[in-house]
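Proteins fold reproducibly. Look at a sample protein:
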Amino acid sequence: MKNKINFGAIIVYYVIAVICRYAAVKTNLLSGIENPYLVILLRGVGPALGALVAIKIFSLNNPMSLKGIYKNAIVPFAVYWILPAVLIAGVYYFTIGKFPILLMFTVLVYGLLEEIGWRGFLQEQLKSLPKFTSILIIAVLWFAWHLNFETTPSNMIFFGIIFFGTWGIGKVYTSTGSLLAVAGVHSLNNFFRNGLHDTELILIVVLLVIWVGFIILYNRKYKTAVNPA
């Protein structure tokens, strides 16, 4: 039996997410905050806040987990947070001469705040729909949440990235059930705030290969443990 979609909860979630986003990027509300890392986090807090409020108001049985299928949260934290932070910080060091560790983890926490909403809540709420329909709805809502509606080629490319990101990150969430895992994958592009160059693209490919390989190997082990021969 398929779960019934709670449209009221989704509307509450999205309204809160958009209001928070609008306040953060379209007003001067955050202009008095001197800490740039706090500003980054506040720009992405809406989806998490909207999800938690919607779950509370509608008393939803909406599973969320940092560890997912892993025995504890240390595994996804090490693989999807520590590993990219160390590698990317190393790239930054060799290019600009310093280790931006605080920026690394700020970006990761930002990704987690978004993923609590987009995957942990919205994907869970829409999982009874056909996969393509669910992906399309999430992609459109996620794109609109950024509040950039100019019909420019770069925006169309961004929507394409959002669409394939929704599919790819959604696959990671379905495979791992871990918010730490999807936050790490989500944050991969956000690490490189000054654009992507050959070194950054190589690093992204390396991390994706490591992560996909880890997911495949761990899932085989997990399924064997759950369903032994």
Observations:
- The radius of gyration is 18 Å.
- Residues 64-226 form one domain.
- The mean pLDDT is 90.
